[in-house]
Amino acid sequence: MEARIRGGFIGRIVPSGPEGTVRPRKLPEMKARPYDPLRLDLENFTADGATLQGRWPLAGFERLLDGWPADAPPAEGEVEWSAVGEMRKPGALEPERWVHLEAHTQVWRECQRCLQPVMMPLSLQRSLRFVRSEEEAARLDAESEDDVLVLERAFDLRLLVEDELLLALPLVPRHEQCPQPLRAPAQPKEETVPERENPFAALARLRHRPDGQGGEDA
Predict the structure, then answer these.
(1) Is 205 helix (H, G, I), strand (E, B) or coil?
(2) Which neighbouring-strand residues pair with 5?
(3) Chain-centroid distance, C-alpha 75
(4) pLDDT digit string (tens) for 203-216?
């Protein structure tokens, strides 16, 4: 019997009379490939144009907790994140592989004006290009403004999220308006130094004593 493919369906000719009939059967759908964000296969992730998203406990980001004030609320929040793979110029000899990353969280730091805890919201949107070698990454870094990293078969996406959030921290954390008025620094007390008499003034008084002693020589 003759089989024909029509619009995504496989038709099987079943004899029924002189011409027969076609019974369509739908092709099986491809299942999405599973991806582990802690061991991410970047090559397939970008080729598939796949998407990952989720939340991670902030307590698992040790470097973000460094500098957390002792009198600030405990680190019980989360890091919300998403990553989208993209392959540009797929027909090229070596296509461009990109990951578009977003992340949001809140951390506490010490205000550099009032020295009280200040909450810092962090948010980032980055597009990063991945290439096959350190040499190519260095060359593209010098030639363009793109953020270029080396392609890995088991890439730790959580580590990348933490790196980017650290870069998003302000250099000088501080309140827009401090909750307590700033105290003016105490002025150092000036020591009282007894005034010394001018020796020439004492000599002048001796020269003009009323008893004539110490007067000018004749």
Answers:
(1) helix
(2) 10
(3) 17
(4) 556 665 555 555 54
